[in-house]
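Sample intake sheet
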Amino acid sequence: MNPEALRITVIGAGHGGKAMAAELASRGFPVTLYNRTFANIEVIATRGGIELMTEDGHEVFGALRHVTSDMGEALADAQLVMVVLPASAHWEVAVQAAPHVKDDQVVLLNPGRTGGALEFAEGLRHGGCATRPIVCEAETFIFASRSMGPAEARIFRTKYSLPAAAFPTTRTPEALELIRQAYPQFFAAKNVLYTSLNNMGAIFHPSLMLLNTGWIEATLGDFEFYMDGVTPATARVLEVLDRERVTVASAVGIRAQTAQEWLYRAYAAEGANLFEAMHANPGYSGIKAPNRMSHRYIFEDVPCSLVPIALMGRQYGVDTPTISTMVHLANTIQGTDYWHKGRTMEKLGIRGLSVGELHHYVDTGER
């Protein structure tokens, strides 16, 4: 199938959504961009597309097929739906999309964070979905990117390879056949437990925010997040967080890669330790820190990454004291309760399942 024949809808017009919509459109795919607030995409609609600076420094224009704030319009004839939003919005999007998604329509969460596909499927059921779309999640987002203006975006780096899986696993092959027409970098993961527990945003995003709180508030983010913000001490905290994540994965029968292994696979960045590997990644160079603590690295990654990893550890007998400490710090700084607001085992539909029952559920969709 040639690119013109694959109709793609991008849900979300933030940093990642703009970059993905523009990049796909610049390669000739017919792309529809959806955002729930039309005022945020009005300039894009007026211009007919998005200006994109590619990672090699070229400027291209991604001419979009359609720009809309109507979910029915956005999903009407899409074959591939790329959800590029903070994971904290996945439930709401699923409920809104439930009346409009179609049989065999592929919906890919970019990324799912931890438990994204499971929560999205629960949201579709809650919204009364009567069809059978294929819900998938990517392990992470394919680009390191930023929005540079109302109709401008920039891609700093594209990952070399990226796992994705469908829920249930039996539908992964047909989903990947479609997804790889747009991005050949995607390959089949074992299942959504693998993509969820190899969630590197859980390690790199919220803890770096929390450990650099004073600097972020004092400078309004005027430093390089992954370079200046990653010191030998903060990197050691990340390494402990990473060991807890890998241990939780092992408890549910998943051999998770370490953060260092992931940096090498995604970016060919290596070093003697996590500090060296992160500083060896050119894709992180130039990315400024968030300018405020009320940011998706907290309100997305704490409830949708750290909380479900910790609660999964609790369900399957693994202590996660460092992860839990980060959740408590976020609760204190934000004045909220992410343990309650986050992805609990109930919200993912897996409370009380044994390890065997959990694998049966993610592989077949049957409890």
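Comment: The mean pLDDT is 95. The two ends are 36 Å apart (CA to CA).
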